[in-house]
Structure formats: structure tokens, C-alpha cells
Amino acid sequence: MGKQATARRLADTEAQVVANGIRTSPRKLNIVATAIRGLSAEHALAQLTFIHRRIAVQVKVALQSAIANAENNHQLDVDRLYVAEAYVGKGLVMRRWHARGRGRTGQITKSFSNLTIVVREREEQK
Question: Is the pTM of this model over 0.85?
Fold first, then answer.
């Protein structure tokens, strides 16, 4: 008895990580995700180390987690990994208000983002 196991959505040569609730707007996070898309895992980590954006630190942690998932859970070769997909989704939006003149208010939106990184193992070159 019990629940049936669902089939794995990714291929056998892929591993992913999903980071939900990152406290930045999707537009800002997408700039960093675009910078690492398609790079090898080693080069992507180096790129994230030297990007001068606050959110790059959290993206680097997520990428390291994806690499660890590939190595420990799926027994993939770390040296042949590359960032196959890195995409950003919109999360929740907190709305705050700021008092303005003449009894009015100004709206402040504090947006959150979701980040998904998929690393894939490169095929052997012949």
C-alpha cells in the first residue's frame, strides 16, 4: 500500500535545483541567469564569483547545490557538467505603502523570484 512513485522528469544525465522565494525581482535575477546559461559548471561558478550583483551569491549557492545533486544523487561526472537551463519565474509580491503628501499613499512592491537550474553531462567527443 502507499503512493506510487512518480517517474523522473529529467533525463538520466541531468540534475536540477529549484530555489524558491529569492528576494529580488525576476528581471534582476534573469540578468545573472543569462550570464551562466550554457557555460560549463566550472566556468559558471567562476563567473558568479566575479559578477558585481548582490543576487549572484545566492545563484552561486544554488548552482553548487545542483552540482552536488548531480554528483551524489545521480553519479554524474562533475568535470563534464554544464548549465543546460537556467530560468527565472515570478514569485509572490509583497505590497507595502509609503505615506505621501496631502493624505495619499505610494505603493511599494517587494517582489520574490523562483530560480531553476538544470545541469547536464556532456556527451563524449569522438
Answer: yes
